[in-house]
Structure formats: C-alpha cells, structure tokens
Design goal:
Length: about 160
C-alpha cells in the first residue's frame, strides 16, 4: 500500500487505464485541527495529482474545491472564478506550519487563519491546495470546480431553510 492506500497491482491498473482523475475527497468539517485539514485537503489533493501524473493516458485532472475558497477577498463584491492571489509561497508556508509542535500550532491557528482572512481551516486548506495544484501542474490539464456545499430547502420545513 502507498500514501493513497492503493495496492500496487491496483495502482498499475489505474495508471494504465485511467484518462480522467476527479479528486472529490475532502474533509468538509470547517473546524478540523489545521494539521488534519492540511493532511486531507491539501496533501490529499497533491497525492491525487501525483497519481494523475503517473496515468499514461491522462486527459485531465479535475479538482473539486469549494465556492468558499476565495471568501478571504475583501469587500462585498462578486469574486471572479479565478485563482485569487496568495500572499505567500504556498509550499514554504505549509512547511512552516508543519514545523510547529502541536501545542504551538493549536495556539497559532487563529493567527494563521486571520493573517489570510480565512474564517476556518477548511477554506484555508482548500485555498492552499488550489495554489499548490496549479503550481505543480506543469503540462497537466487541471480543472478546478467550486460547488457550493450549502443549499436552502425548496419547501420543507420552510422555503430557504438551511440546517
């Protein structure tokens, strides 16, 4: 087994036959400890990109992100469907976070999030994943889609109800 939990013989089949890789795995818990959010949403995405890179017949990789990934943009305006600017080098900043001991990281998490304007570890980790995936894409065709995970009810219990 490897980082994705795939048996070597299954990985071989995937790399020989897969044409499109869709990464839809994530933790959608908004308040995961930052280390957990990064391991699942950031590093998990990079591991899927590594697998996609091995696929001999790859047409493209599709990364499912979040409509909230650019929630840190200032003002009440329409946020374009583009990669918003990242204030730091993603890779070195993530390495800096991971170099902190768990107690320090727990104390520093609110500062890390507020420095970027993110309300939670989910949006932060998904934002950083998008930037790193793009940086590492090279010649790989990469599509990033951003569905909304919050929907209002059409009828029951009342119109617009969100639980």
């Amino acid at each position: 087994m490897n980082g994705l939990g795939i048996k070597p013989e299954d990985r071989r089949i995937l790399t020989e036959e897969v044409e499109v890789v869709i990464n839809n795995a994530a933790s959608v818990n908004f308040n995961d400890p930052i280390h957990d959010a990064l391991n699942i949403n950031y590093f998990g995405s990079l591991r899927m990109q590594d697998l996609a890179r091995e696929c001999k017949n790859l047409i493209c990789m599709v990364h499912v992100s979040s409509t909230f990934v650019n929630c840190n943009q200032p003002g009440n305006k329409v946020v374009p469907e583009a990669l918003a600017e990242c204030k730091v080098d993603t890779e070195s900043y993530i390495n800096k976070i991971l170099s902190m001991n768990p107690q320090q990281l727990e104390v520093e998490t609110p500062s890390v999030l507020s420095a970027f304007g993110f309300p939670n570890t989910y949006t932060f980790s998904k934002h950083m994943a998008e930037h790193m995936l793009k940086k590492r894409a090279g010649n790989m065709k990469l599509s990033i889609v951003r569905p909304s995970s919050i929907l209002g009810c059409a009828k029951e219990p009342i119109i617009g109800w969100v639980d």
